[in-house]
Design brief:
Elements: E1 2-4, H1 7-19, E2 33-39, E3 42-49, E4 52-58, E5 69-73, H2 75-88, H3 97-103, E6 109-110, H4 116-124, H5 126-134, E7 141-143
Parallel strand pairs: 1-7, 2-5
Antiparallel strand pairs: 2-3, 3-4, 5-6
């Protein structure tokens, strides 16, 4: 059972995402982006290149400015989204990244440098990032 959040969890999801061709078609085509994930105090970076997630890494707050954007949600919101994905096989209803962003007063996608062009990658490649997290449906996940 993989602990969320952890590098092991992100690596396992990365491998599942890359291996499943269902996640690489339609609106989730080729994408190049450096994406941060903030879960409480834990910070991770995901590198996307082409149709794959090429790397997952643990980072620090000092690394955020080099990323295109980062997703920041309360721990409870991450848990709710992942529980929804595990229950349905993919995010449904109000648990998609797009809906979570729209329903949040300040959104969930942020730029450490204030560069809206780089943050726009979240909206341009939203389905790619959603598919990445949807790949977690096959990962036996536990929470702290």
């Amino acid at each position: 059972m993989m602990l969320f959040p952890s590098l092991e969890w992100f690596e396992t999801v990365r491998v599942a995402y890359n291996a499943d061709p269902r996640f690489h078609g339609g609106g989730a085509g080729a994408c190049t982006a450096e994406v941060g994930i903030k879960v409480g105090e834990a910070l991770f970076a995901l590198s996307f290149g082409g149709r794959d997630c090429t790397q997952a890494a643990v980072i620090t707050a000092e690394d955020l400015p080099r990323l295109d954007f980062y997703l920041d949600m309360p721990v409870a919101a991450w848990r709710a989204m992942l529980a929804n994905i595990c229950e349905h096989g993919h995010a449904v209803d109000e648990q998609t990244l797009n809906t979570l962003d729209l329903d949040s007063d300040d959104g969930i996608a942020h730029s450490a440098t204030g560069d809206q062009y780089r943050t726009d990658l979240f909206f341009r490649f939203n389905q790619t990032f959603q598919n990445f997290f949807d790949a977690a449906a096959g990962v036996d996940t536990r929470f702290e």
